[in-house]
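Note to self: the last two entries modelled the partners one at a time, which told us nothing about the interface. This time every component goes in together.
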Amino acid sequence: MQMQCCPVSVPVKCCLVRTPSSSPSSRGGGTAVDSIPMIAAGGPKWAQKTITLPPLKRGCHLVTPKIVKEIGEDLSEFNCGLAHLFLQHTSASLTINENYDSDVRDDTETFLNTIVPEGTSAPWKHTLEGPDDMPAHIKSSMFGCTLMVPITNGKLNMGTWQGIWLCEHRDYPTARKVVVTLNGI
Amino acid sequence: MQMQCCPVSVPVKCCLVRTPSSSPSSRGGGTAVDSIPMIAAGGPKWAQKTITLPPLKRGCHLVTPKIVKEIGEDLSEFNCGLAHLFLQHTSASLTINENYDSDVRDDTETFLNTIVPEGTSAPWKHTLEGPDDMPAHIKSSMFGCTLMVPITNGKLNMGTWQGIWLCEHRDYPTARKVVVTLNGI
Amino acid sequence: MQMQCCPVSVPVKCCLVRTPSSSPSSRGGGTAVDSIPMIAAGGPKWAQKTITLPPLKRGCHLVTPKIVKEIGEDLSEFNCGLAHLFLQHTSASLTINENYDSDVRDDTETFLNTIVPEGTSAPWKHTLEGPDDMPAHIKSSMFGCTLMVPITNGKLNMGTWQGIWLCEHRDYPTARKVVVTLNGI
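The predicted structure of the combined assembly is written out below.
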């Protein structure tokens, strides 16, 4: 079962051919191909901008709508590609998780606070910037500051229940910058 | 020591020139270049498809063979590029780790279960979908749902001992979708 | 507010137009665009090489200077793009975190050693390669072996306080290979 790879040096218009799945059953054992987008290219495109997310209180926040509002018009230009998000900070993080029940975000914040000691019992040497600073750095590396999401038919191709979270690990809310880079055809 | 970057608007055939390392010693102190692929391009290509991994029991599973079986033919079209894997779920994860001893995968599952409380002692608010659901969300953000692997000479350029793992964090096995995007020359 | 996406099939010289921000205020509530690089493309470029980082002792190390020394000349050829780093090992990790105070790196190592049991009290089955081996695998999946950083105006576009860390999780220092892939215009 083969994807169609297309050299883009030929300046034809982009087109997207979606073939019906030849493996309708994706359950019950063998690995199955669920859908086979085949893509003929017109030329690769790049776009990049820095967006600023407003200050958010400590905790996990669903920011998909904010991000899509900023880049949605650009996304619509891409039939197939990748969207890269890069948070330019070391005391917050980006992750993808459940987009519906805010309890999931609260529980994740509870987990992070349980797993990373804070305050007088914590063993940190780096304390000059406050008791929440060193834990924030650790949480930032646990979840990471960078995400890559596929683009399909002009939209972020995430699962039904997936959303982009900004996790703010500092007590004092700060605006956070995200460099968004789009690449595709 | 310089990589050769090649505009791809010239529709020449791809070629890959591998020069011998000029720094044969990669040990003992200074940063050394181990190999220097220099790549002349014929034109960038994009390919994307969604593959479905069969239901797997809770735990960590080596899925490199399954994935390569699905995308290997497409991979072979790329001399140089990147392969992006995106798991469309929030209760499983993708990670790269040891590909040989299944004990490593078992021990990693043990670790995850130790670090993320589950059951009556757990502090979670989000419990409607069962005791394993909230822990699954947390583990998904710890390991992540997205991977990017370099492509070199038509193959995933992982280290000798590296493999792609699907970590299933739910008790009830479910088929899992992975959007694979290939980009390169 | 729109990014300019540019088909690269037209073989014109790259150019970068930076417009002044039309949303000077990035605080106080609404999502704001901080800067809007608009990019006109001349043609996409790919470059890839494997660099070897020298053996480093167990712990977290700032390696931005070492990496930029290896790829800086190549980076300068890209106005806009992405730099991918891929560590070919399963007992070390790459992460982005604070680039100034070495205490942050020491504290992060302390955290990792606290969170992942090692020695006689540890529940691991995989012990053949020494007591530090299984913990090293787990830490590798916690922080990950792959990073993607935006390139803007010929440089890695990280935040002021961000740096690239190599975290060595084994007791015995080993040279570590990183496959670097650059893609952009």
